[in-house]
Structures are given as structure tokens and as C-alpha cells.
Specification:
Elements (H helix, E strand, L loop, with lengths): L15 E5 L28 H15 L3 E5 L9 H9 L10 E6 L4 H11 L3 E5 L5 H8 L4 H13 L5 E7 L8 H11 L2 E6 L17 H11 L2 E3 L8 E5 L5 E5 L12 E4 L4 E3 L8 E2 L1 H4 L5 H12 L20 H4 L2
Parallel strand pairs: 1-2, 1-10, 2-3, 3-4, 4-5, 5-6, 6-9
Antiparallel strand pairs: 7-8, 8-9, 10-11, 11-12
Helix pairs in contact: 1-2, 1-9, 2-3, 3-5
The structure holds S-adenosylmethionine and iron/sulfur cluster (SF4).
Length: 334
């Protein structure tokens, strides 16, 4: 059977599924969660692995989705994660191709999990790391676990994950002085640092435009020390810069100052089975109800297509018509 491409109202082909598998986390990063008081979903509200894999299968087999990324909350806090990875690694597009299967994690438990995840078929990892300085890391993540994350990164390298990207959310006056240190860290270890602009998705609602460190500023700081050239961008939201001396690359994700919505090819599934067509969407499409009430694959595919039919052109951060979504990043799935 040929895949029917899923095209949104603005002519973009949608083929990337971001799946949040839990709203829980073992960190409390200041830009994502409050220190305490998060209300967790009850266990039976979460999609089961079989339900997640079914939605993914419909997207891959019917619409030819080519990439799937697991996220959260912190995906590694969900037990038996490798069994979900194995289910997703077994999916094939109508052309017989496997999907590009990746995960975003805070890395704290990778020292334990990396070998099993690799063996189950996970291909790529993005590991979040916001400071290389232990006490600053502890303040940002509200957990004193930098050494475990560094061990997790080493374990991921040893398990053969390539490329490994490091995600750093820069906040003005907090960690923006570490940009060149991150670049050096990446160059020494063969990792790709990516600097993400702080977005108004923090649970505390304290985001302000003054805290955003523009991607252009990051590029200027790094290329002054390690000369680099921009690589042609694909649908990837990161603009990649390759070092002229051949020692790898870094990326900037300028979601606020230079939104990449025009290339957006993704939809998101929340941990409780709501399909969202944008990080900043203010409405959601309930797939869990369909999954639990005997819907056929055709009905699920129709619901996915109908949701994509509502995908908007892009977010409006910084404009007067911007509406903050009711959920924070950990509840949507970053
Ligand atoms: N717990 C995992 C982790 O931290 O990598 C996966 C989920 S986390 C929500 C996904 C990504 O979103 C992380 O790289 C995190 O740094 C980023 N993120 C969270 N809140 C953000 C915000 N307000 N602005 C920009 N990025 C944010
Ligand atoms: Fe947890 Fe990731 Fe949010 Fe940090 S960014 S609190 S690690 S979900």
C-alpha cells in the first residue's frame, strides 16, 4: 500500500511524530517545571505502550512518517522503556524503510539504560545539559546530578549512539557565559551542542523576552573562537554550523527570534493521548478516547488527518496575539 502524504493547510508535509510517554520527571528545571506542586497524571490516564505503538504505526504505515522521537517529562522514568523502543524500531514505512528513532532525555540514568536502549533499536539521542558547572547545574535542574549526566553522556557514546546532540537552553545572566565552554566540550567528545532559545513554556509563567539569548549572539561568540560555516538547513529547526578545522559542528535553535514554522513537519502526542499540531497549540485532538473505544485504524488515521487539517502557519511569540498554551513544556512533550 502506498503512503498517502499528510499535507497541512499550508502545504507542509507532516512526517515527524514527537511522543511524550510521561509527564513525570526526576529533575525540576526552572525553565520547565515548578519546584513542587506538579499534578501528575494517574497511571490509567497514560497511554499504554501498545496504544502508543498503534498510533505510531498508523502514522508510519498510512502517512509515511519517517521519524519518531520519544520525550516527556523524562522518558527514562517510564519502566521497561526498551520494550517500547523495540516496538517502534520494528515499524516500517510502506517503502519498507525503518523510521529514524530518537529520544530526548536529561541523561541522568543513561549510565544504566544506554546499552539496553541501543540494543532495542534506539538510534539517536539528544541529551539536555544546561551547565558544566556543578552548583549552577544544581540550581537550574533543582537536582545536584551533573556527574550522573556526564556519566550518562559517556555511556551513550560507549553504547554507539551517533550523533549525540546536547540541548542547552540559554537564559540571559544564568548560563549564557558558558557558550564557548559547551562548544569546546562538544569538540573534545564528538558531541553536537545545540543552543535553544528560552520559550514561554515554563510552568512558573515567569518567562520574559529579556531572558532570551538570541541564536545570532551564540554563533558570534563561538565562531570568534572556533571559526565555522553555516550548513544548508533542512526541516531540522536547528541551524547547523560546521567548524572549519573539521572538529564537528554546533547548532542554534532560534525558536523565538527566528521561528522555523515554515518548515515544520511535526505533530505531538501527549502522554495521555492528545494530538497537538504545534508546541504552542491551544487546542488538542483526543486519540485516547478513540483507542479505548474500539476505533479502527481507518478511524484513527482519519482523526490524525483531521487534526493536521487544523495545523496553523506558526506561533506568534512576541506578537500581541500570542496566547500562552495552558500546558508547560513537560506536560506537552518538548
Ligand atoms: N526531560 C527530557 C529533557 O529534558 O531532555 C525531555 C523533555 S524536555 C521538556 C525536552 C526539551 O525541552 C529539553 O531539551 C528542554 O531543555 C527543553 N525545554 C523545556 N522547557 C523549555 C523552555 N521553556 N524553553 C525552551 N526549551 C525548553
Ligand atoms: Fe524534566 Fe526535561 Fe523539564 Fe528538565 S526539561 S524538568 S529534565 S522534563
Amino acid at each position: 500500500m502506498d503512503a498517502a502524504p499528510l499535507i497541512d493547510p499550508f502545504g507542509r508535509r507532516v512526517r515527524d511524530l514527537r511522543i511524550s510517554i510521561t509527564d513525570r520527571c526526576n529533575f525540576r528545571c526552572t525553565y520547565c517545571m515548578p519546584a513542587e506542586g506538579m499534578q501528575w497524571l494517574a497511571r490509567d490516564e497514560l497511554l499504554r505502550f501498545e496504544e502508543i505503538a498503534r498510533v505510531a504505526r498508523v502514522c508510519v504505515e498510512r502517512f509515511g512518517f519517517t521519524s519518531i522521537r520519544l520525550t516527556g517529562g523524562e522518558p527514562t522514568v517510564r519502566a521497561h522503556l526498551d520494550s517500547l523502543v523495540a516496538m517502534l524500531a520494528g515499524l516500517r514505512t510502506p517503502d519498507g524503510a525503518p523510521v529514524d528513532l530518537a529520544m530526548t532525555t536529561n541523561g541522568a540514568t543513561l549510565a544504566l539504560l544506554a546499552p539496553a536502549l541501543s540494543a532495542a533499536g534506539l538510534q539517536r539521542l539528544n541529551i539536555s545539559l544546561d551547565s558544566l558547572v556543578a552548583d549552577r547545574f544544581a540550581r537550574l535542574a533543582r537536582r545536584d546530578r551533573l556527574s550522573e549526566v556526564l556519566e550518562g553522556i559517556d555511556a551513550a557514546v560507549a553504547a554507539g549512539f551517533r550523533p549525540i546532540k546536547l540541548n542547552t537552553v540559554l537564559i540571559r545572566g544564568v548560563n549564557d557565559d558558558e557558550v564557548v565552554d559547551f562548544a569546546r566540550f562538544g569538540r573534545e567528545r564528538g558531541l553536537v551542542p545545540r543552543f535553544i532559545e528560552f520559550m514561554p513554556l515554563d510552568a512558573d509563567g515567569s518567562w520574559s523576552a529579556h531572558q532570551v539569548v538570541p541564536g545570532d549572539e551564540v554563533v558570534e561568540a563561538i565562531t570568534a573562537v572556533f571559526p565555522a560555516v553555516a550548513v544548508d538547513p533542512g526541516p531540522d529547526p536547528a541551524t547547523t554550523w560546521r567548524y572549519l578545522d573539521g572538529k564537528g559542528s554546533f547548532g542554534v535553535i532560534s525558536s523565538v527570534t527566528k521561528p522555523f514554522c515554515g518548515n515544520c513537519d511535526r505533530v505531538r502526542l501527549t502522554a495521555e493521548g492528545q494530538l497537538r499540531t504545534c508546541l504552542f497549540a491551544t487546542d488538542e485532538h483526543d486519540l485516547r478516547d478513540l483507542l479505548r473505544n474500539g476505533a479502527s485504524d481507518d478511524q484513527l488515521a482519519d482523526a490524525v488527518a483531521a487534526a493536521v487539517g487544523t495545523k496553523w502557519a506558526g506561533h506568534a511569540i512576541g506578537r500581541v496575539n500570542f496566547i500562552r498554551p495552558a500546558r508547560s513544556m513537560s506536560q506537552i512533550g518538548g
